[in-house]
């Protein structure tokens, strides 16, 4: 893989809405009594932490409330962002615009925490059904 292809590219709105979020396989999940979800993920420690004797991995834990859990569990690698937004809007009686802002902002947070990845089709490639 060349360095250019490893660099994340800026996506326009239509490309983002067609992306398929997927849970990362290396997370550990525990259901909470309040309907939320506790997620633990092991990440490689940064160089300074390893130098100071912190070991090669660190575990980070995230607590999702019931709404966050709903969005996270919809990230199955098949459903598009658009489908997740529409389902969320319908379930919570929101406009598509309100749901889109909420869901896409939350998905961005999940990506930044390495809890989900986003499958994006190359321009001109055929969509999965």
Task: Give the SSE layout.
Layout: H1 3-6, H2 13-18, E1 20-23, E2 27-31, E3 37-44, H3 47-51, E4 57-64, H4 66-74, H5 81-92, H6 96-112, E5 116-119
Antiparallel strand pairs: 1-5, 2-3, 3-4
Helix pairs in contact: 5-6
Structure summary:
This protein is an alpha+beta fold and 129 residues long.
- Helix count equals 6
- What is the 3D shape? globular
Distance between the termini: 28 Å
Averaged pLDDT:
84
**How many structural domains in the coordinates?**
1
CATH fold annotation: Outer Surface Protein A, domain 3
CATH architecture: Alpha-Beta Complex
Strand order of the largest sheet: 2-3-4
Beta-strand percentage range? 15-25%
Given this structure, which CATH class is correct? Alpha Beta
- What's the count of strands? 5
- Quickly give the structural class: alpha+beta
| Run of helices and strands | HHEEEHEHHHE
Proportion of helical residues: 40-55%
Low-confidence stretches: 1-7
Biggest sheet overview: 3 strands, antiparallel
**Rg on CA atoms, Å:** 17 Å
Main features:
single chain, 129 residues, alpha+beta, Outer Surface Protein A, domain 3, 3-stranded antiparallel beta sheet, 6 helices, globular, disordered N terminus
Describe this protein's structure.
The chain has 129 residues and is an alpha+beta fold. It has one domain (12-119): Outer Surface Protein A, domain 3 (Alpha-Beta Complex), CATH 3.90.930. It has six helices and five strands. It has helices at 3-6, 13-18, 47-51, 66-74, 81-92, 96-112, and strands at 20-23, 27-31, 37-44, 57-64, 116-119. The strands form two sheets. A three-stranded antiparallel β-sheet has the order 2-3-4. A two-stranded antiparallel ribbon has the order 1-5. A hairpin with a 5-residue loop joins strand 2 and strand 3. The model is unreliable at 1-7 (pLDDT under 50).
